[in-house]
Write a structure and sequence with these properties.
46% of the residues lie in helices and 15% in strands. The termini are close together. Helix 1 packs parallel to helix 5 and helix 4 runs antiparallel to helix 5. The chain has 142 residues and is an alpha/beta fold. The protein has a four-stranded mixed β-sheet, with helices on both faces. The relative contact order is 0.25.
């Protein structure tokens, strides 16, 4: 699992993902990487391709790829999101999360980021009709 989050916190983050996705067709994934020694950005994109890329009808999946040991965070959105959400939004969110990580607030930062992302996705990808959960909500690990 993770030395930075308790099992209870991980379960709570899964609930936050469910809640964040409730009013949007967007999908949010969180991957915690404890293995990468090399190029985190390259690994993050590989994980994004496996978990998210082109797996949603509106290409609106977001991945939070976290490597606590290396204090590294990558946020990647599929093409549908990039057409609507400006880079400045993601930069601001990234800065907030990493500043909270620096204080040891891993759980608080991830939960806030998930819920905030849900609000942003709701603006551009509101639910109309039935909201299908296109991707699993569980947190993945490597």
């Amino acid at each position: 699992m993770s030395n930075f989050l308790t099992n209870q916190q991980i379960a709570s983050l899964v609930e936050a993902i469910q809640s964040a996705e409730e009013h949007s067709t967007g999908e949010i994934r969180v991957h915690i990487d404890s293995n990468t020694e090399g190029d985190n950005a390259k690994i993050a994109f590989k994980v994004f391709e496996e978990l998210c890329l082109n797996k949603t009808k509106e290409k609106n999946a977001v991945l939070f790829h976290v490597n606590f040991e290396q204090k590294y965070l990558t946020i990647i959105g599929d093409t549908g999101i990039h057409e609507k959400v400006h880079q400045s939004y993601w930069d601001h969110l990234h800065d907030y999360i990493t500043s909270e990580f620096a204080k040891g607030n891993y759980y608080k930062a991830l939960k806030s980021a998930i819920l905030e992302t849900g609000l942003e996705l709701k603006k551009y990808f509101p639910v109309t009709g039935k909201n299908h959960n296109e991707l699993p909500n569980e947190i993945t690990f490597s």
